[in-house]
């Protein structure tokens, strides 16, 4: 005991060594935090360089004005509008499923469900969000499509409708969970004020709670749209590979993501035109989702109602 | 003709004499609609799982787990895909965990509120919204093409690096949240005793936050295991008749194998695909179960 207390090392720790360790750790961790920034830079540079190479061969106007997408044919055409129309179609169907389903679920969880029910239902919805998308694709192709074919005669085996519906189911938890956060955050006093004026629960929700939570709800929907645009496996499996311009949900169609999958499955040598179309389509996709994400970010900051 | 004053009186009277019964009816209908939405979502989940399990169960056997892919559906198995997925899981964790936790530590414990940490924050929230297929394009160009001498092209290593970048934002956010739950008094006590920041963090803060960090990281890894699009884009093969034996070996993974089988016309392969989904879901269930166990233990420690 005596001797250990007299040990000079205990009272004169090597401060210089620990400061050096501190500096090294700080440097390494700082470097790690740069990896995420590096990822963004990497994505942008990769997309930009290959897309520039693409536009050196295929002029800008052809990409935006042609009305057929046949880059692998002899008479190649590069009308990105074909792929965008398919993406808009599946995303539109998805949102018309996911918006009512997700928003009503959010209202139910926040306003109607008892805390105990909420504890059970919220994780259940999270499970729905955790199901890999390839499983949803299987479900769309081999369960939903046959079911719909029994109801709608003339529905093709691959179609935008069932892909869109299942895509909607896949993004429902996203809308439900983010909207629920926004609705739950509306302070109790606003509801009490509304009840005191004689409003019923539904009237309170529709005219007081939802407007107060609007910025969060809109942001959740925009994020869901962005997710639906970038979603790949469901549309690649269930919507088919048929690049046609138009908005017929009953026939096979090819979205931007499905095209990237189709080309990636084949053996495409780097530098070929098929390889470059991957990046041109990827850039279009990236710009669309980025614009939506930035818009949602801006919307929340611009229109957030703050309560103390 | 009624005077304007009289009509105003009447409308004011109407305001207080609203049909309560009708309003309550509407209320009940609305409440019913919200419950219906929740029930429908959960019903879809149940139908999805039971349908797939019923389709796949007949094919589930030890032979299915240990067989390599084959052109005959009844002889094919998931050995190569399962092996590939386990390789991916380990390598992805090796890259993503230290980097993600390190970045989270730096942002939460070391960096002073500066333009750098704000930039990284905005950057991370943006990265979380980038579609996974775009990460696939990044992996294809950078890891599979430019770094081919190191990664061996379209290899397990390339796949793992791509998936690591994909789940990095999730791990960073989970780390930061876990670090925030550690009481500040603990840090101050450490500083008061003359410890440096790293000494406080490594000896007290990190051990307390670790269960939370691990939970978040396992959930992020389970996302990587279910990921298909990014792996297809980097050019992972769909027919691999062997289990990868090194990081630079070509590979296939469970979701890719499932995709490959589901996109074939034969009924037999569809059954295989369902059986593959059952195996994938079992792997995910094991991972999520571990995460939940950790979370529960963590909560007990704090209270």
Radius of gyration of chain B: 27 Å
Distance between the termini of chain B: 74 Å
Q: Would you tell me which CATH topology of the largest domain in chain A applies?
A: MetI-like fold
Percent of residues in helices of chain A:
over 70%
Oligomer: heterodimer
Tell me the CATH architecture of the largest domain in chain A. Orthogonal Bundle
User: What name goes with the CATH superfamily of the largest domain in chain B?
Assistant: MetI-like
Strand tally of chain B: 0
Secondary-structure element string of chain A: HHHHHHHHHHHHHH
CATH topology of the largest domain in chain B: MetI-like fold
Biggest pleated-sheet summary of chain A = none
Helix proportion of chain B: over 70%
Note the overall shape of chain A.
globular
The largest sheet of chain B, given as strand count, sense and whether it forms a barrel, is:
none
Average residue pLDDT of chain B: 87
> Given the helix and strand composition of chain B, which structural class is it?
mainly alpha
Notes on the structure:
The complex is a heterodimer of chains A (308) and B (303). Chain A has 308 residues and is an all-alpha fold. Chain A has two domains: 56 residues; 224 residues, MetI-like (MetI-like fold, Orthogonal Bundle), CATH 1.10.3720.10. Chain A is built from 14 helices and no strands. Chain A is globular and about 85 Å long. The N and C termini of chain A lie far apart (56 Å). The model of chain A has no long low-confidence stretch (mean pLDDT 88). Chain B folds into two domains: 41 residues; 241 residues, MetI-like fold (Orthogonal Bundle). Chain B is built from 13 helices and no strands. In chain B, helix 8 crosses helix 10. The interface between A and B is large, with 87 and 88 residues.
């Amino acid at each position: 005991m005596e001797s250990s207390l007299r040990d000079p090392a205990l009272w004169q720790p090597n401060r210089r060594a620990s400061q050096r360790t501190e500096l090294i750790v700080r440097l390494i961790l700082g470097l790690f935090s740069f990896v995420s920034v590096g990822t963004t830079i990497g994505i942008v540079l990769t997309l930009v360089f290959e897309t520039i190479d693409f536009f050196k061969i295929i002029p800008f106007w052809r990409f935006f004005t042609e009305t057929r997408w046949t880059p692998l044919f002899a008479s190649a055409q590069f009308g990105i509008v074909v792929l965008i129309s398919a993406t808009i179609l599946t995303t539109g169907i998805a949102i018309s499923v996911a918006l009512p389903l997700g928003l009503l679920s959010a209202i139910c969880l926040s306003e109607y469900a008892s805390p105990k029910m909420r504890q059970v239902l919220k994780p259940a919805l999270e499970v729905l969000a955790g199901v890999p998308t390839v499983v949803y694709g299987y479900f769309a192709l081999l369960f939903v499509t046959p079911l719909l074919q029994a109801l709608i005669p003339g529905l093709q085996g691959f179609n935008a409708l069932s892909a869109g519906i299942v895509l909607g189911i896949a993004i429902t938890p996203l809308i439900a969970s983010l909207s629920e956060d926004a609705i739950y955050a509306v302070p109790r006093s606003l509801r009490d004020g509304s009840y005191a004026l004689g409003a019923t629960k539904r009237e309170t929700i529709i005219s007081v709670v939802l407007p107060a939570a609007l910025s969060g709800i809109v942001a959740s929907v925009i994020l869901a749209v962005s997710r639906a645009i970038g979603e790949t496996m469901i549309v690649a499996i269930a919507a088919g590979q048929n690049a046609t311009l138009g908005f017929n949900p009953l026939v096979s169609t090819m979205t931007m993501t499905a095209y990237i999958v189709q080309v990636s499955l084949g053996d495409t040598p780097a530098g070929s035109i098929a390889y470059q179309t991957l990046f041109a389509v990827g850039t279009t996709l990236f710009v669309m989702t980025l614009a939506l994400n930035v818009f949602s970010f801006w919307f929340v900051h611009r229109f957030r109602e703050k309560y103390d | 003709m009624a005077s304007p004053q009289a009509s105003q009186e009447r409308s004011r009277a109407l305001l207080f004499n609203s049909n309560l019964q009708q309003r309550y009816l509407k209320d009940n209908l609305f409440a019913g609609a919200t419950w219906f939405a929740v029930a429908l979502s959960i019903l879809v989940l149940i139908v999805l799982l039971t349908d797939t399990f019923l389709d796949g169960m007949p094919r589930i056997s030890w032979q299915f787990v240990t067989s390599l892919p084959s052109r005959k559906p009844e002889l094919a198995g998931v050995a190569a895909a399962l092996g590939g997925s386990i390789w991916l899981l380990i390598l992805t964790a090796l890259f993503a965990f230290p980097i993600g936790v390190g970045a989270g530590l730096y942002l939460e414990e070391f960096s002073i509120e500066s333009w750098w940490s704000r930039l990284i924050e905005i950057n991370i929230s943006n990265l979380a919204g980038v579609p996974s297929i775009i990460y696939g394009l990044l992996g294809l160009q950078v890891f599979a093409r430019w770094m081919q001498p190191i990664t061996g092209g379209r290899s397990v290593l390339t796949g793992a690096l791509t998936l690591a970048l994909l789940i990095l934002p999730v791990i960073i956010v989970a780390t930061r949240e876990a670090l925030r739950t550690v009481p500040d008094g603990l840090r101050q006590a450490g500083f008061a005793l003359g410890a440096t920041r790293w000494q406080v963090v490594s000896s007290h803060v990190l051990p307390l936050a670790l269960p939370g960090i691990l939970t978040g990281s396992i959930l992020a890894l389970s996302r990587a295991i279910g990921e298909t699009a990014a792996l297809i884009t980097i050019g992972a093969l769909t027919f691999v008749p062997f289990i990868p034996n090194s990081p630079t070996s070509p590979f296939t993974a469970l979701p890719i194998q499932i995709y490959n089988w589901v996109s074939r016309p034969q009924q037999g392969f569809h059954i295989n695909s369902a059986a593959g989904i059952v195996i994938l879901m079992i792997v995910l269930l094991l991972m999520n179960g571990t995460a939940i166990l950790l979370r529960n233990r963590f909560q007990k420690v704090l209270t």
